[in-house]
Amino acid sequence: SEMCIRDRSKLMDVTPLVSKDRQLIESYGDGSFKISGVVYSSPVVVFPELCIPLSNFDVAESKICFFKAVFQTTYMPSILLFGAGKNPYLLTEIERDFVRQQNCVLDVMNTGAACRTFNVLCAEDRRVAAALIPVA
């Protein structure tokens, strides 16, 4: 009806505004991620300006190897989101301390929440990185 068409102009677009040079996590699932048009089927570390696939990473091993990949770049995040698969689990004190020593706040959550949170923080120009484990 005419009423619906007129009201359509009042709809709010909630897609985060992300500049073209910024990474945007478009989707996740089926063991992969689609990030700024590129599909990755391994764990990844995503920064606002680049994405690093970690195909040799074994999740069962220490997470410190995963976190070290974050801090081996010149980009130093103040927030690290750890997308720990479907069910977030507790990290060891050693793993938490490693991130703390980098002057970075670590936030552990499921991978879906980490993807959504990364996009929002990236759109807000926050110094964020996300270490993401794929989910089936």
Report what the structure shows.
The protein is of the alpha/beta class and 136 residues long. It is built from four helices and eight strands; from the N terminus they run αβββββαβαβαβ. The chain has a five-stranded mixed sheet, sandwiched between helices. The mean pLDDT is 85.
What percent strand?
15-25%
What gross morphology would you assign? globular
Overall pLDDT? 85
Give the helix proportion (percent range).
Answer: 25-40%
Helix and strand sequence: HEEEEEHEHEHE
What structural category arises from helix and sheet content? alpha/beta
Unreliable parts: none
Strand arrangement in the largest pleated sheet = 5-4-8-6-7
Number of helices: 4
Q: Can you summarize the main beta sheet?
A: 5 strands, mixed
Would you report the number of β strands? 8
Distance between the termini: 42 Å
List keywords for this structure.
single chain, 136 residues, alpha/beta, 5-stranded mixed β-sheet, 3-stranded antiparallel β-sheet
How is the secondary structure organized here?
Layout: H1 2-7, E1 25-29, E2 32-35, E3 38-40, E4 44-46, E5 51-53, H2 64-71, E6 79-83, H3 93-100, E7 105-109, H4 111-123, E8 128-132
Parallel strand pairs: 6-7, 6-8
Antiparallel strand pairs: 1-2, 2-3, 4-5, 4-8
Short description:
By secondary structure, this protein is an alpha/beta fold. The chain has helices spanning 2-7, 64-71, 93-100, 111-123; strands at 25-29, 32-35, 38-40, 44-46, 51-53, 79-83, 105-109, 128-132.
